[in-house]
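Me: I hope this is not a bother. Any chance you could explain this protein sequence and its structure tokens? It all follows right here:
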Amino acid sequence: MVEFIDCGTVSIQYDTTGRATISFVVVTDNDRLSGRYTSLSFGGINFIGAIMSAVQRPIIGSSDGEGTAWFEWQMTLQGVGN
């Protein structure tokens, strides 16, 4: 099983209270995620929070003809960084 965060999709925004909203895409060759993605580290900052949304989409044309296909998950985490 292969699963990774597409680094080019990472977006981090802070509100005035310091809460972070982190959006990113996870790419996997399975229709389920193995990672929890509630504790992440970007740029030396550790973020801890809760997944607020997770939307799965198949990657069109990724099937190898034997049932293996790739999926992307659009994830949004809200939390704090330290």
Summary: Residues 3-81 form one domain.
